[in-house]
Design a protein that fits this description.
Elements (H helix, E strand, L loop, with lengths): L1 H26 L4 H17 L1 H4 L1 H19 L3 H24 L3
Helix pairs in contact: 2-4, 2-5, 4-5
Length: 103
């Protein structure tokens, strides 16, 4: 019975390690979907008139997206993801400001 319990412990430990390694590898991949979502949010903000309603926020979103693209080129995927998420939020803020403008 002692061998069985030790074997189960080792098997569970290996499963945990494989799971952690998988999560780490997933986090280190290029943030393709995040980048796509950010570009779409920027386009929506532009279409809604954010260039006039929130030019600073829109420009900042574009700059952050550009920095994220540069980070991807050099393999800094985690930093690129953070930068793209910040760009998407800033673009969403610009979109919101544009939508609140009277037409």
């Amino acid at each position: 019975m002692g061998m069985f319990n030790n074997g189960m412990f080792v098997a569970r430990g290996c499963c945990v390690l494989v799971g952690v390694a998988s999560l780490a590898a997933g986090c280190a991949s290029a943030p393709i979907q995040t980048m796509s979502d950010t570009r779409q949010t920027i386009r929506a903000a532009e279409a809604a008139g954010a260039s006039q309603a929130a030019p600073e926020a829109l420009a900042a979103a574009r700059d952050e997206l550009h920095r994220a693209e540069q980070m991807i080129r050099v393999g800094e995927y985690r930093a690129a993801r953070r930068e793209a998420e910040a760009a998407r939020q800033r673009a969403a803020d610009a979109l919101s400001a544009a939508q609140q403008q009277p037409r």
